User: Which sequence fits this backbone?
C-alpha cells in the first residue's frame, strides 16, 4: 500500500529548537530550530520516502476553540525571542523541498491532520502522523499510526493502549477527564491519568461514567466528577480533533514535487548551512539522524519489554585490517566529516585520534579547535567513554552515541570498567601496551568492537545498552555542562557556624575523656575509649578496636562521649567535604559547580557522582540538609525536585506479585500502615505510630534481605520479638518470601540475577567458602533485581524528560531528579515532568512521585 505522512510542523520545529543548542549565522540570525527542522525533513525524504507528504501548519490567529473557551492556550508563554525570526524560514524551506504545505483559517494543524487522515483512509493508503503530541492518539487505528521521531517510536492501537492505558477511541474522553495543562484545558480537577484509566476501563466512555455516577466508589472521587462535569464536557469539545474538513486536493497534489534547488541553495547560503548545501549535488540523502533509542514498531515499551533484545548494536564501519594513518588540517577535517558522519574517537595522554572511513586521523590542531569543527554536526560517535571525549572536545551538541565500549563492557559485567586497558585484556585476552598511541588504541578498539558486541548478546544485554545506557550519555553530558549554582555567602556562614559547634564538641569530648587527643585518629580514639575509659569494645581487628558508627551507636545511650564523637564526625565531614570544599570547585567561567556523573562504576546499575560527590550529602540530619540551602537556582528560575515515592517497595510488589502489596499500592493506602495492620493483626485505623515505624523498618529491611539480627539491631528489640515480626510478615506476604527464596536459588544455579529490564548482576560471593560472604551474596541477590530495576526506571525517566521537557535537568540523586525552571513556567513544567516520570513504564502498581519547588535545593523539599 502507498503511504501518507502528515507532519505536525509546530511540534517538529519547537522540539528541534529545544533539542539543538543555540546557533547563529554570521549576521546574527538564530538558526538552531531551522537546522533541526531541515535535518528531520531530510531524514523523512531519504529514509521513509513517502508517497504522499503534507506539512500541516498552525495559523497566527485564534482557532474556533478560543470561541468555545476564552482561556484556551491562555497559559502559553511568549515564543522564545530567538525562535521568532526563524519561523518565516520554516515555510520557505518546506516549499523549496517540494513538500505540500497546508493551513486553514479558524482551524489548527491538528484538524488538518485529522481530516487528511480520513482522506487517506478513504483512499486506501497507510497514514502516519508525525508528532509527539498525545492528542493524535485519538486518530490511531487500522491503517493509522502515530510516529514520534524524537523517540523513534511508532504507536499503533496496542501501543496507544500500552502508553496511555486506554484505547485510541477512549483518548478523547481520557483527555476530557485529565485535561491538558499545556493547552490550559481544565478537565476534572483531582482526576489524574491513573484515575481516568480506571474509570474508562469500567465505564468505557465519559457518558458512561456520568450515567453511572451513583455507582462510583469513593465519595471524594464522585464529588470531584460531579463538580467537574461541565469542565469535562467542555474539555471533550476542545480536545476532539476535527476530521471532516474538505480540501480541494487529490493524490497528485500531495505527492512530493521536485526540489527547487535554486531556491533551496539560496536559503541554505543565507542560513550558512554549508554541510546541507553539499548534499544537494545529486540528491538530498543524509546519514540517519541520531535518535535516543532504536525504533520499535507496534507496542510502546513497558517494564517487561523496554529493554527486550533487538538487533545487535552497530559497532563499527572501520576495517581494522586496512586502517591507514593520515594527518589532516582543520579544513580537511571540516570537509571530510559532514553532518551525520560516523566516526570513532580516542583521546589519551598522548593525543587525539579520529577514525573516519578507513583512516586513523591525526589533526594538526588543539582539542578545542577540533571540537569547534565537529560541534553541531550531529555525528554518530563510537569510542570508549564518549562522555569524557565530548568533554575534552568541549562540544555543545555532539550528536548521537552509536557505540561506547565502556558501556558495552558495563552491561556485560557491571562494575568498574573505566580502564580501557583492563577491559581490553579481559575481553581479548591480550595485554595493551602501556604507551599505546591514540591510533594504536583506535585499532585496539576496532578489534575489540565485535568481541564486545558478542559479549553483550551473550548476556542478552542489547536492550539495556540501546534503550538505557547509550541514550543516557547525552543526558548526563548536558547535565554536567550545565552544572548547578552555589551561594558562596551561605557556605561561608555555615562554615563559621560549624567551626564554633565543632570546637564546642571537641571540648565536651576532652572533658569526658579527661585529656586531649586527635579525635579524627581511630587509633587514638580507640585507645581513649576502650583502654583508658574502659567502654565496652566491639570485635578487635588486626588494626585494633573498631570505632565505626555501628560500634559507637550501641554506646550512645549509656556513654555521652559516644554521641559527642558521632556528632563531631558529622559536622567535621560536612565542613571539610562540602561547606569548605564547594567554593573551591566553582568554575571560574560558568560560576557553577559541575559534578561528574559516573555511569559505569557500580555493580547495581546506579549512577554515582564525583568532584564533588553530590549524592552523598547527608540528609538524615538537620545540619546535613542545611548544606542543600547553598545550592541555588539561577535568577528568574526555581528548582523543581521530583523523586519517586517508595519505588523499591513498588518494584518488590511488581516482581513478587504479592497480593497484599499490590492491594496497598493500587488502593493508594499507606503501605507501612497496611503492613503493620497485617503483621500485628489489627485494623488499619488501629495501627499506632510505633507499629507503623516497626513495619516501615520491616518493609525496607526485607528489600535488602535483612534477617532477624538486622531487624533487632534496627529496632533495638530482642531477637525473639524480631523473629516473630518477620514470621508474621512472611505468613501474610507469602509471595515476598517465595520471591526471596526462588531468587536466591536461581542465583546459586546461574550465578547471576536480573532486573525487570534484563540488566544482569553476577553474584560471585555465592561461590565463596566464607559463610559471611555467602550470606552477603544472598542478600545482594534479593536486592539487586529491586535496586537495579529502580535504577533503570530512573534512567529511563531521565531520558524521557530530557527529550520532552524544556526545564533543565541538573542533578540526579538516587530516586530524585532536580530541575531548573523559569519561575513563570513552574506549574506547567512540574505537571509535565510528573506525568512523564509516573508513566515512563507500566507496572502492576502505579508509580508515584513527590514534586516540590523552591529557590534552593532544600526549599524544594519543603
Assistant:
Amino acid at each position: 500500500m502507498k503511504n501518507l505522512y502528515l507532519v505536525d510542523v509546530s511540534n517538529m520545529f519547537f522540539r528541534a529548537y529545544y533539542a539543538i543548542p543555540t546557533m547563529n549565522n554570521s549576521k546574527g540570525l538564530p538558526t538552531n530550530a531551522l537546522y533541526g527542522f531541515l535535518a528531520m525533513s531530510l531524514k523523512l525524504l531519504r529514509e521513509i520516502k513517502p508517497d504522499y507528504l503534507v506539512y500541516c501548519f498552525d495559523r497566527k490567529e485564534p482557532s474556533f476553540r478560543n470561541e468555545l473557551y476564552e482561556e484556551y492556550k491562555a497559559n502559553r508563554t511568549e515564543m522564545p525571542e530567538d525562535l521568532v525570526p526563524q519561523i518565516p524560514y520554516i515555510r520557505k524551506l518546506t516549499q523549496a523541498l517540494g513538500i505540500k504545505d497546508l493551513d486553514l483559517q479558524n482551524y489548527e494543524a491538528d484538524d488538518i491532520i485529522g481530516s487528511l487522515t480520513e482522506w487517506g483512509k478513504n483512499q486506501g493508503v497507510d497514514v502516519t502522523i508525525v508528532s509527539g503530541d498525545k492528542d493524535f492518539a485519538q486518530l490511531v487505528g487500522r491503517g493509522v499510526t502515530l510516529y514520534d521521531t524524537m523517540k523513534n517510536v511508532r504507536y499503533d492501537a496496542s501501543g496507544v493502549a500500552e502508553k496511555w492505558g486506554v484505547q485510541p477511541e477512549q483518548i478523547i474522553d481520557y483527555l476530557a477527564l485529565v485535561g491538558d495543562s499545556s493547552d490550559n484545558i481544565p478537565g476534572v480537577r483531582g482526576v489524574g491519568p491513573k484515575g481516568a484509566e480506571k474509570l474508562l476501563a469500567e465505564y468505557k466512555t465519559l457518558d458512561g461514567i456520568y450515567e453511572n455516577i451513583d455507582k462510583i466508589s469513593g465519595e471524594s472521587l464522585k464529588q470531584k466528577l460531579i463538580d467537574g462535569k461541565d469542565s469535562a464536557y467542555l474539555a471533550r469539545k476542545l480536545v476532539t480533533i476535527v476530521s471532516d474538513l474538505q480540501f480541494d486536493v487529490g493524490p497528485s497534489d500531495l505527492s512530493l514535487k521536485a526540489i527547487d534547488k535554486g531556491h533551496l541553495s539560496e536559503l541554505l547560503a543565507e542560513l550558512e548551512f554549508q554541510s546541507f548545501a553539499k548534499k544537494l549535488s545529486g540528491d538530498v540523502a543524509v546519514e540517519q539522524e541520531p535518535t535516543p533509542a532504536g525504533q520499535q514498531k507496534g507496542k510502546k515499551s513497558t517494564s517487561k519489554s523496554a529493554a527486550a533484545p533487538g538487533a545487535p548494536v552497530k559497532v563499527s564501519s572501520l576495517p581494522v585490517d586496512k586502517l591507514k594513518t593520515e594527518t589532516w588540517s582543520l579544513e580537511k577535517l571540516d570537509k571530510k566529516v559532514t553532518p551525520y558522519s560516523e566516526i570513532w574517537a580516542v583521546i589519551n595522554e598522548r593525543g587525539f585520534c579520529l577514525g573516519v572511513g578507513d583512516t586513523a586521523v591525526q589533526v594538526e590542531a588543539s582539542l578545542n579547535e577540533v571540537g569547534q569543527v565537529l560541534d553541531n554536526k550531529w555525528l554518530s560517535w563510537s569510542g570508549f567513554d564518549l562522555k569524557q571525549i565530548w568533554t575534552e572536545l568541549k562540544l555543545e551538541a555532539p550528536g548521537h552515541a552509536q557505540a561506547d565500549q565502556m558501556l558495552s563492557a558495563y552491561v556485560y559485567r557491571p562494575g568498574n570498567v573505566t580502564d580501557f586497558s583492563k577491559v581490553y585484556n579481559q575481553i581479548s585476552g591480550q595485554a595493551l601496551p602501556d604507551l599505546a598511541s591514540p591510533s594504536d588504541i583506535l585499532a585496539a578498539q576496532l578489534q575489540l568492537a565485535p568481541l564486545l558486541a558478542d559479549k553483550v548478546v551473550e548476556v542478552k544485554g542489547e536492550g539495556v545498552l540501546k534503550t538505557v545506557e547509550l541514550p543516557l550519555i547525552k543526558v548526563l553530558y548536558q547535565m554536567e555542562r550545565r552544572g548547578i549554582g552555589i551561594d558562596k555567602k551561605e557556605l561561608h556562614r555555615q562554615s563559621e557556624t560549624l567551626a564554633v559547634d565543632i570546637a564546642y564538641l571537641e571540648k565536651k569530648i576532652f572533658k569526658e575523656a579527661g585529656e586531649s587527643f586527635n579525635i579524627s585518629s581511630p587509633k587514638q580514639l580507640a585507645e581513649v575509649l576502650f583502654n583508658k575509659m574502659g567502654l565496652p569494645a566491639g570485635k578487635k581487628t588486626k588494626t585494633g578496636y573498631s570505632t565505626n558508627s555501628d560500634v559507637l551507636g550501641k554506646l550512645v545511650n549509656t556513654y555521652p562521649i559516644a554521641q559527642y564523637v558521632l556528632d563531631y564526625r558529622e559536622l567535621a565531614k560536612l565542613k571539610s567535604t562540602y561547606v569548605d570544599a564547594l567554593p573551591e570547585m566553582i568554575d571560574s567561567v560558568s560560576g557553577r559547580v559541575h559534578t561528574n556523573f559516573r555511569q559505569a562504576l557500580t555493580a547495581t546499575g546506579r549512577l554515582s557522582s564525583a568532584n564533588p560527590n553530590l549524592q552523598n550529602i547527608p540528609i538524615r540530619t538537620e545540619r546535613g540538609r542545611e548544606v542543600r540551602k547553598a545550592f541555588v537556582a539561577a535568577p528568574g528560575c526555581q528548582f523543581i525536585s521530583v523523586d519517586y515515592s517508595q519505588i523499591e517497595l513498588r518494584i518488590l510488589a511488581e516482581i513478587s506479585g504479592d497480593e497484599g502489596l499490590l492491594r496497598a499500592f493500587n488502593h493508594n493506602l499507606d503501605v507501612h500502615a497496611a503492613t503493620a495492620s497485617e503483621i500485628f493483626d489489627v485494623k488499619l485505623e488501629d495501627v499506632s505510630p510505633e507499629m507503623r515505624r516497626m513495619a516501615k523498618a520491616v518493609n525496607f529491611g526485607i528489600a535488602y534481605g535483612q534477617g532477624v539480627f538486622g531487624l533487632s539491631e534496627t529496632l533495638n528489640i530482642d531477637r525473639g520479638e524480631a523473629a516473630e515480626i518477620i514470621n508474621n510478615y512472611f505468613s501474610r506476604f507469602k509471595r515476598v518470601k517465595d520471591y526471596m527464596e526462588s531468587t536466591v536459588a536461581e542465583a546459586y544455579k546461574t550465578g547471576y540475577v536480573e532486573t525487570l529490564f534484563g540488566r544482569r548482576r553476577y553474584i560471585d560471593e555465592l561461590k565463596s567458602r566464607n559463610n559471611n560472604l555467602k550470606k552477603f551474596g544472598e542478600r545482594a541477590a534479593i536486592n539487586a533485581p529491586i535496586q537495579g530495576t529502580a535504577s533503570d526506571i530512573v534512567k529511563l525517566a531521565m531520558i524521557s524528560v530530557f527529550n520532552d521537557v524544556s526545564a533543565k535537568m541538573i542533578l540526579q540523586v538516587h530516586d530524585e531528579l532536580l530541575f531548573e525552571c523559569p519561575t513563570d513556567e513552574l506549574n506547567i513544567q512540574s505537571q509535565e515532568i510528573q506525568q512523564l516520570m509516573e508513566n515512563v513504564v507500566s507496572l502492576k502498581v502505579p508509580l508515584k512521585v513527590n514534586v516540590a519547588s523552591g529557590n534552593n535545593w532544600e526549599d524544594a523539599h519543603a
